[in-house]
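Figure 2 data, in text form.
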Amino acid sequence: MSARYITTTLPYLNADPHLGHALEFVEADCYKRAALLAGDEAFLNIGTDEHGAKVAEKAAAAGKSPQEYVDEYALRFKAFADRLDISYDAFTRTTDAGHVAAAQEFWKRCDAAGDIYKAAYEIKYCVGCELEKTGSELEEGKCPVHPNLQIETRTEENYYFRFSKYQQVLLDLYEASTDIVVPKERLHEIRTFVAGGLKDFSISRRKEKLSWGIPVPGDDEHVMYVWFDALVNYVSVLGWPGEEQKFNTWWPVTQFAGKDNLRQQSAMWQAMLMSAGVAPSKQIFIHGFITSGGQKMSKSLGNVINPMDLVEKYGVDAVRYILLRHVSPFEDSDLTFEAIQDHYTAHLANGLGNLVARVMRLAEEHLPEPVVVTEDDIRLEQSFLQSVERFKFNEAMDLVFEHVAKGDAFMTEHEPYKKIKSADAAEKETGRQEIEKLVHHVAKIAAHLVPSMPATAEAILAAVRANKKPDNLFPRLEKLHGS
């Protein structure tokens, strides 16, 4: 048994939760639940990133103090995670007192290592990313992630982190741990970036320009740059540096992040950890974006898919299913309302739901007592666990739904619903045995759904234990209104 510490990135509180947040939360939750079923201990951290210029601007526009604004939005994200049935163990807010203290201590340790200095620089800056950009990262003078925003040129005297010092150390890390960044394409991308040369990056803002941030230790005129502050949550949630036993039990971490976070998570943060004397992350899983109709989702295009609208229409587990099976774990994926409706109808209503209903109706009508669920029924296949371990959630889901197809095929081939009504005693007994076999098969399917569709798994297992057909798991529905 091993201890698995898993974290998502902390969503930045300048907008409501969206489908990308849902994807990352659900993937991390599935990974955690599978780890528990494999016999490991697991700790899942989620939370909110609450400092920085964009939050201050949004708060001012709303006529609220920054603290009032982040308090409101943190509750929204927590409710969002709860609605998606995310089994998190910690919800970290970067305004928490414990996090603030840890961020300041982290700063002090990097400073003691000689990696923090003050200097004036002119930079190209993307307000959307809250990140400096090199010329090679811009496309026609625009940030490819935020092409609608103007790149700003800024001259500031700030504190800088000596990122350039860690070029070779990072390259050695990538060489020694060839799976530290997954998938391999992202490892190649970050290795290429680091090999091209590293520039020291700013880690503070002048307080006169931005007061909403964690004060820099020993300098009241500066607050920490939002990225430096937020990344420290991965250690602060474990009580670092004071709670050594807790920290040593869980560290290092498996991180979940989107591809726009590749540099921050797999290079900047790793260098910061080394500077502070903390071991690097165990693994960094980088997922792609979700597009709709071949385009980035935007209100102006009218193609935004609100995950809570999907939950309202299809249910929580159906949304979790869509995100895990029909979104690529590694590449960008396209979802439309029409595709979601088709997946729901074909695989959940007509597939899983229909199989469970048919089998359990036969069981309720023809078995005198519930089938006893065995250890073999609920033992997860190694191929399933290995797929989740490798972040291949769609592959793991395919394995589960292959069992759904096998159940359908068995029903069609053997026709136990006919045999059980036979006047011939031997034929009738064969039918009864085949129904029992199908119930065991349904229990096996349910056990494999626990990481991805936990409420559905429990409903199926409860039906098996009670020997009753469950309420309709996935009612047939019309297309989502307005889609």
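Caption note: The first strand starts at residue 3 and ends at 8.
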